[in-house]
Amino acid sequence: MTQLAETPEPPYYAVIFASIKIEEDQGYAETSARMIELAKKQPGFIGMDSARVDVGVTVSYWQDLASIKQWKQNAEHQVAQAFGREQWYSRYKIRIAKVELEYGN
Amino acid sequence: MTQLAETPEPPYYAVIFASIKIEEDQGYAETSARMIELAKKQPGFIGMDSARVDVGVTVSYWQDLASIKQWKQNAEHQVAQAFGREQWYSRYKIRIAKVELEYGN
Questions:
Q1: What is the pTM of this model?
Q2: Which residue of B has its CA nearest to A103?
Q3: Which of A90, B67, B72, B74 is 20 to 30 A from B35 via CA?
Q4: Which ranges form a coiled coil (chains A, B) (predicted)?
């Protein structure tokens, strides 16, 4: 079932990853799935909301900046980052943001 | 052409809107398009990245909290918000976050 991320009371952090993929994205789906699986095991990981049509928008939620830094430096993730930069994305933008307020249902 | 939002040097603000839509979303597409058109005319609006499959993730970027508040209170937008809450979204979550760092290509 499709669900939205469950997050605690702010403050916590969001990594906003927006990207445009090229057509021949060999290995992308497998690596993408693997990175999600791996991120979920990282300390400080809270949750994630993600969608892709042409533009992909993935927002992951983290306890603090240290958790984000640790995930960025994960060895397997670094290999995936290099593939992303060099092969899969024609453009991408990453924004680190401190969530101050949250509401919804 | 599909493009990503162009944003200035941080700090600025992001509104992260994650939602799940119900099946019968009468009037949704028109109102959604109209709200995007209207948001672009608001003071402080910077840009937006958006995608929807099952989950929709829309991140809009704003100069400051005052701009976000003003947009939230826009009369036409308030009608759309009510439709969203009462008719279109089975779940939604809005997070207001201060962008501290940005990188990409």
A1: 0.85
A2: B94
A3: A90
A4: none
